[in-house]
Fold this protein.
Amino acid sequence: MTTLTLPADYAQIPGKKLQLPDDIGPVLMHCCCAPCSSAMIEACLRDGIRPTLFYYNPNIHPRAEYEVRKNELSRFAEALGLAWVDADYDREAWFEATRGLAHEPERGARCMRCFSLRMDVTARYAAQHDFSLFTTTLASSRWKDLNQVTLAGQQAAERYPATRYWAQDWRKNGLSVRKDALIKTIGFYQQQYCGCVYSLRDTNKWRQEHGRPPIEPGTGK
């Protein structure tokens, strides 16, 4: 596994200070993928916060795509010197959580169920391992409904009162622009769809309608 090379100015560029609770302790950051985590982690490191990364994404299909994305996060964590947790690839739990919602649109009820499952597992791990806060890189994606992501995190925290959800708009204050720049500079694996079997289906349908070849999961094509 080759090592990622970070830009020389990583975590060195001044930015608006993050909004944090007064009694912040260890932070668990659920990471959907390395690209979405890039600017969020940088902002944390800049402000003296070293999050533990948590990879729980049973939505990603097929397994080949899942493994490539997981390995990319592993390389990123190694380059940063951050601890990360490789959680279970529980596909059955994801399909059960989203049962009957195969034809829901992006940002619909299926996405909410998906977020809720992933935030519940993250919150449970945080509570069991003494993390005072948890957050998610899903909140940095412009393709996701931020209100859905925030609600899923807050509801999960209510079920595990030993931890709290760190709600913040990770798209503002230049973070989205910085994320796009980091993705290009670092050269992350190029993801071609959200990750789930339904987004793969819908993206391939769009590609077919526009005369483009289908996605080859696990290859970045």
Observations:
- Residues 27-209 form a domain with the Rossmann fold fold (CATH 3.40.50.620).
